[in-house]
Protein backbone atom coordinates (compact mmCIF):
# COMPACT_ATOMS: atom_id res chain seq x y z
CA UNK A 1 0.00 0.00 0.00
CA UNK A 2 2.85 2.36 0.90
CA UNK A 3 4.53 1.61 -2.43
CA UNK A 4 1.34 2.42 -4.33
CA UNK A 5 0.93 5.69 -2.42
CA UNK A 6 4.52 6.69 -3.11
CA UNK A 7 4.01 5.96 -6.79
CA UNK A 8 0.95 8.21 -6.91
CA UNK A 9 2.88 11.04 -5.23
CA UNK A 10 5.77 10.71 -7.67
CA UNK A 11 3.36 10.63 -10.60
CA UNK A 12 1.60 13.75 -9.27
CA UNK A 13 4.92 15.52 -8.86
CA UNK A 14 5.89 14.75 -12.46
CA UNK A 15 2.50 16.01 -13.65
CA UNK A 16 2.89 19.26 -11.70
CA UNK A 17 6.35 19.79 -13.16
CA UNK A 18 5.12 19.12 -16.70
CA UNK A 19 2.15 21.46 -16.31
CA UNK A 20 4.28 24.23 -14.85
CA UNK A 21 6.88 23.88 -17.60
CA UNK A 22 4.23 23.99 -20.31
CA UNK A 23 2.81 27.19 -18.84
CA UNK A 24 6.28 28.73 -18.69
CA UNK A 25 7.00 27.90 -22.32
CA UNK A 26 3.67 29.18 -23.59
CA UNK A 27 4.22 32.46 -21.78
CA UNK A 28 7.78 32.70 -23.10
CA UNK A 29 6.68 32.05 -26.67
CA UNK A 30 4.15 34.90 -26.47
CA UNK A 31 6.81 37.29 -25.15
CA UNK A 32 9.31 36.29 -27.84
CA UNK A 33 6.70 36.76 -30.56
CA UNK A 34 6.09 40.34 -29.41
CA UNK A 35 9.84 41.02 -29.24
CA UNK A 36 10.36 39.71 -32.77
CA UNK A 37 7.65 42.01 -34.10
CA UNK A 38 8.79 45.11 -32.22
CA UNK A 39 12.58 44.81 -32.32
CA UNK A 40 13.51 44.36 -35.97
CA UNK A 41 17.26 45.07 -36.15
CA UNK A 42 18.79 47.59 -38.57
CA UNK A 43 20.01 46.11 -41.85
CA UNK A 44 23.42 44.53 -41.43
CA UNK A 45 23.17 44.19 -37.64
CA UNK A 46 22.33 41.15 -35.51
CA UNK A 47 20.34 41.48 -32.28
CA UNK A 48 22.50 40.92 -29.20
CA UNK A 49 20.45 37.95 -28.04
CA UNK A 50 21.31 36.06 -31.24
CA UNK A 51 25.03 36.89 -31.18
CA UNK A 52 27.67 34.19 -30.73
CA UNK A 53 28.43 35.32 -27.18
CA UNK A 54 24.87 36.08 -26.13
CA UNK A 55 24.13 34.98 -22.58
CA UNK A 56 20.71 34.67 -20.97
CA UNK A 57 20.71 35.69 -17.32
CA UNK A 58 19.85 33.11 -14.70
CA UNK A 59 16.13 33.16 -14.09
CA UNK A 60 15.31 34.14 -17.65
CA UNK A 61 14.31 31.62 -20.29
CA UNK A 62 16.22 30.84 -23.46
CA UNK A 63 14.49 30.70 -26.81
CA UNK A 64 12.54 27.45 -27.09
CA UNK A 65 14.38 24.86 -29.15
CA UNK A 66 12.58 22.49 -31.47
CA UNK A 67 14.13 19.53 -29.69
CA UNK A 68 15.43 19.52 -26.11
CA UNK A 69 17.00 16.68 -24.13
CA UNK A 70 15.13 16.21 -20.85
CA UNK A 71 17.14 14.63 -18.02
CA UNK A 72 15.41 13.37 -14.89
CA UNK A 73 17.12 14.19 -11.58
CA UNK A 74 16.10 13.47 -8.02
CA UNK A 75 16.30 17.01 -6.62
CA UNK A 76 19.62 18.51 -7.73
CA UNK A 77 19.23 19.42 -11.40
CA UNK A 78 20.59 22.89 -10.70
CA UNK A 79 23.81 21.52 -9.17
CA UNK A 80 24.29 19.19 -12.15
CA UNK A 81 23.70 21.96 -14.69
CA UNK A 82 26.10 24.26 -12.84
CA UNK A 83 28.78 21.56 -12.93
CA UNK A 84 28.32 20.99 -16.67
CA UNK A 85 28.48 24.74 -17.33
CA UNK A 86 31.76 24.99 -15.44
CA UNK A 87 33.30 21.91 -17.08
CA UNK A 88 32.44 22.01 -20.78
CA UNK A 89 32.83 24.86 -23.30
CA UNK A 90 29.73 26.36 -24.92
CA UNK A 91 27.72 25.27 -21.87
CA UNK A 92 25.66 27.40 -19.51
CA UNK A 93 22.76 27.49 -17.09
CA UNK A 94 20.06 29.41 -18.96
CA UNK A 95 17.10 29.46 -16.60
CA UNK A 96 15.93 28.11 -13.27
CA UNK A 97 12.19 27.62 -12.77
CA UNK A 98 10.75 27.36 -9.27
CA UNK A 99 7.39 26.10 -8.05
CA UNK A 100 4.89 28.98 -7.71
CA UNK A 101 3.04 27.17 -4.91
CA UNK A 102 3.13 24.05 -2.76
CA UNK A 103 2.57 20.69 -4.46
CA UNK A 104 2.21 17.04 -3.29
CA UNK A 105 5.91 16.39 -2.68
CA UNK A 106 7.35 19.89 -2.40
CA UNK A 107 6.79 23.49 -1.53
CA UNK A 108 6.68 26.88 -3.19
CA UNK A 109 10.14 28.01 -4.25
CA UNK A 110 11.54 24.53 -4.85
CA UNK A 111 13.49 24.19 -8.11
CA UNK A 112 11.35 22.28 -10.60
CA UNK A 113 13.27 22.56 -13.85
CA UNK A 114 16.57 23.97 -15.06
CA UNK A 115 17.30 24.97 -18.65
CA UNK A 116 20.95 24.55 -19.64
CA UNK A 117 23.22 23.75 -22.56
CA UNK A 118 26.00 21.17 -22.90
CA UNK A 119 28.35 21.92 -25.82
CA UNK A 120 25.53 24.05 -27.22
CA UNK A 121 22.93 21.27 -26.97
CA UNK A 122 19.75 22.48 -25.22
CA UNK A 123 18.83 20.40 -22.19
CA UNK A 124 16.23 20.48 -19.47
CA UNK A 125 16.93 19.14 -15.99
CA UNK A 126 13.74 18.01 -14.26
CA UNK A 127 13.64 17.47 -10.49
CA UNK A 128 11.18 14.59 -10.58
CA UNK A 129 12.11 12.70 -7.41
CA UNK A 130 13.62 9.22 -6.99
CA UNK A 131 11.13 7.31 -9.15
CA UNK A 132 13.48 6.96 -12.17
CA UNK A 133 17.23 6.60 -12.46
CA UNK A 134 19.71 7.36 -15.22
CA UNK A 135 21.23 4.41 -17.08
CA UNK A 136 23.65 3.60 -19.88
CA UNK A 137 20.65 3.57 -22.23
CA UNK A 138 21.36 7.30 -22.64
CA UNK A 139 24.77 8.99 -22.74
CA UNK A 140 26.52 12.09 -24.00
CA UNK A 141 29.37 11.27 -26.39
CA UNK A 142 32.10 13.91 -26.31
CA UNK A 143 34.65 13.88 -29.15
CA UNK A 144 38.09 14.95 -27.92
CA UNK A 145 41.05 16.11 -29.98
CA UNK A 146 43.91 14.73 -27.90
CA UNK A 147 44.90 13.07 -24.63
CA UNK A 148 44.95 16.34 -22.71
CA UNK A 149 41.33 17.10 -23.54
CA UNK A 150 40.33 13.49 -22.89
CA UNK A 151 41.97 13.57 -19.46
CA UNK A 152 40.48 16.95 -18.58
CA UNK A 153 36.87 15.86 -19.05
CA UNK A 154 37.40 12.38 -17.65
CA UNK A 155 39.08 13.68 -14.48
CA UNK A 156 36.45 16.37 -14.01
CA UNK A 157 33.59 13.86 -14.14
CA UNK A 158 35.18 11.01 -12.19
CA UNK A 159 36.89 13.35 -9.72
CA UNK A 160 33.60 15.01 -8.81
CA UNK A 161 32.00 11.90 -7.34
CA UNK A 162 31.66 10.09 -10.65
CA UNK A 163 32.54 6.53 -11.57
CA UNK A 164 34.80 4.95 -14.19
CA UNK A 165 33.44 2.37 -16.58
CA UNK A 166 34.92 0.61 -19.63
CA UNK A 167 35.89 1.64 -23.17
CA UNK A 168 35.86 5.38 -22.55
CA UNK A 169 32.60 5.43 -20.59
CA UNK A 170 32.17 7.09 -17.21
CA UNK A 171 29.27 8.22 -15.06
CA UNK A 172 28.88 11.52 -13.22
CA UNK A 173 27.71 11.83 -9.62
CA UNK A 174 24.10 12.25 -10.78
CA UNK A 175 24.16 9.03 -12.76
CA UNK A 176 24.35 10.60 -16.24
CA UNK A 177 26.65 8.59 -18.53
CA UNK A 178 29.38 10.08 -20.68
CA UNK A 179 31.51 8.66 -23.48
CA UNK A 180 34.81 10.54 -23.67
CA UNK A 181 35.91 9.50 -27.14
CA UNK A 182 39.14 10.71 -28.76
CA UNK A 183 38.89 11.26 -32.51
CA UNK A 184 41.91 8.98 -32.87
CA UNK A 185 39.74 6.08 -31.70
CA UNK A 186 36.82 6.98 -33.95
CA UNK A 187 39.09 7.28 -36.99
CA UNK A 188 40.87 4.01 -36.23
CA UNK A 189 37.60 2.09 -35.94
CA UNK A 190 36.32 3.70 -39.16
CA UNK A 191 39.44 2.65 -41.06
CA UNK A 192 38.27 -0.95 -41.16
CA UNK A 193 40.38 -4.04 -41.68
CA UNK A 194 43.34 -4.83 -39.47
CA UNK A 195 43.66 -1.24 -38.24
CA UNK A 196 40.15 -1.28 -36.82
CA UNK A 197 40.57 -4.76 -35.35
CA UNK A 198 43.76 -3.88 -33.51
CA UNK A 199 42.37 -0.57 -32.26
CA UNK A 200 39.16 -2.25 -31.10
CA UNK A 201 41.05 -4.94 -29.20
CA UNK A 202 43.17 -2.27 -27.51
CA UNK A 203 40.08 -0.26 -26.57
CA UNK A 204 38.47 -3.30 -24.94
CA UNK A 205 41.24 -3.35 -22.32
CA UNK A 206 40.78 0.30 -21.33
CA UNK A 207 38.70 2.43 -19.03
CA UNK A 208 39.86 5.90 -20.01
CA UNK A 209 41.02 5.84 -23.64
CA UNK A 210 44.77 6.09 -24.11
CA UNK A 211 45.35 7.85 -27.41
CA UNK A 212 48.98 6.77 -27.85
CA UNK A 213 48.10 3.12 -27.31
CA UNK A 214 45.23 3.31 -29.81
CA UNK A 215 47.46 4.92 -32.43
CA UNK A 216 50.19 2.33 -31.87
CA UNK A 217 47.67 -0.50 -32.18
CA UNK A 218 46.34 0.97 -35.40
CA UNK A 219 49.81 1.10 -36.90
CA UNK A 220 50.45 -2.48 -35.84
TrEMBL record:
SUPFAM superfamilies given in the database record: Glyoxalase/Bleomycin resistance protein/Dihydroxybiphenyl dioxygenase
InterPro entries in the cross-refs: Glyas_Bleomycin-R_OHBP_Dase, PhnB-like
GO biological process per UniProt: methylation
GO molecular function: methyltransferase activity
Keywords from the named record: Methyltransferase, Transferase, Ubiquinone
Keyword DNA repair: no
Residue ranges annotated for the PhnB-like domain, each copy included: 66-181
Gene3D superfamilies, sorted: 2,3-Dihydroxybiphenyl 1,2-Dioxygenase, domain 1 (3.10.180.10)
PANTHER family: PHNB-LIKE DOMAIN-CONTAINING PROTEIN (PTHR33990:SF2), PROTEIN YJDN-RELATED (PTHR33990)
Name the record gives this protein: 3-demethylubiquinone-9 3-methyltransferase
Amino acid sequence: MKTATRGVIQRDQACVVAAFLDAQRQSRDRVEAVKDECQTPPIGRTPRRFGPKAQTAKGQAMTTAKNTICLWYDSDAEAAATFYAGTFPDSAVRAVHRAPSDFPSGKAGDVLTVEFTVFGIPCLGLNGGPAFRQSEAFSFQIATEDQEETDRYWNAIVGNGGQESACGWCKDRWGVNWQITPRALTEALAAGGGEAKRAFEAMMTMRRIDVATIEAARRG
